[in-house]
Design brief:
Largest sheet: none
Transmembrane segments: 54-72, 93-116, 128-153, 160-179, 205-226
Keywords: Membrane, Transmembrane, Transmembrane helix
Radius of gyration: 18 Å
Pfam families: ABC2_membrane_2
Distance between the termini: 16 Å
Protein name: ABC transporter permease
Low-confidence stretches: none
Helix content: over 70%
Number of strands: 0
Shape: globular
């Protein structure tokens, strides 16, 4: 971790425009949860559906995409990353710092709102709120590592990330069992399923497999991002 890089990245990510993007989706999730509870229609099936389809399947990947690509992608696009690369800072430290900032943002704007929404909808019933919170956190680390790597590897990271989240996971995942199982969403859902007794929470992937795949995505994402930064020839950089 590098405190200076982290502070600059937080300042850039929490600017007015990006802050509005980060706040919009969690606000909608919390507003929906409060509305359903106020209307007294938030039974367990409805509550799990909201937490899974809105929290885990929509809010999480989009927030991770905004945070993961935003912490480093714009700096690469406009060339400002070169000012960092010319400093005597190891490339792995740059990547880990950017990744840590992105994970903190995902925790603040996706994980915590999921916990609050879960508590509003289900209270302590079957530990559903806690289960989804842990699942979203596990999936958030994997998503964020993936999107940070994409931001370093490609200038079209946002487009590629949207195609993955919306086409592969959402569209193909709804009709093709193979695509559904090969997704961060289902691996995170497996973690959620393991932490609650609610029968409406189900996953298509066994927990040991899901944990291994989540860890693999996180590690591979870091390795690819560090490797790509090391290929950028900048005088004075490691």
């Amino acid at each position: 971790m590098n405190a200076t890089i982290a502070a600059i990245t937080f300042r850039a990510m929490l600017g007015r425009r990006r802050a509005l993007l980060l706040l919009a989706l969690p606000f909608l999730l919390l507003a929906l949860a409060v509305g359903l509870r106020a209307a007294d229609v938030a039974d367990l099936d409805v509550s799990v559906g909201v937490l899974q389809r809105f929290g885990l399947a929509t809010l999480l990947p989009l927030l991770a995409l905004i945070a993961g690509t935003g912490v480093i992608g714009p700096e690469i696009d406009d060339g400002q990353i070169m000012y960092v690369l010319t400093k005597p800072i190891p490339r792995r430290v740059i990547v880990f710092t950017k990744l840590a900032v992105a994970i903190v943002l995902v925790t603040a704007f996706a994980v915590l709102p999921t916990l609050l929404a879960g508590l509003v909808l289900t209270g302590a019933t079957a530990q559903v709120a806690v289960a989804f919170t842990v699942g979203v956190l596990a999936g958030g680390v994997a998503y964020t590592s993936l999107f940070v790597a994409l931001a370093v590897l490609s200038r079209n990271a946002v487009t590629i990330g949207l195609l993955y989240a919306l086409v592969w996971e959402a569209l193909l995942g709804s009709v093709a069992p193979g695509a559904r199982s090969a997704s961060v969403q289902q691996w995170a859902m497996s973690v959620t399923d393991a932490l609650t007794d609610a029968s409406v929470v189900t996953s298509t992937v066994r927990l040991p497999v899901a944990l291994g795949l989540l860890a693999a995505v996180a590690v591979v994402g870091c390795v690819l991002a560090v490797g790509r930064l090391r290929t950028l020839p900048v005088a004075g950089a490691e």
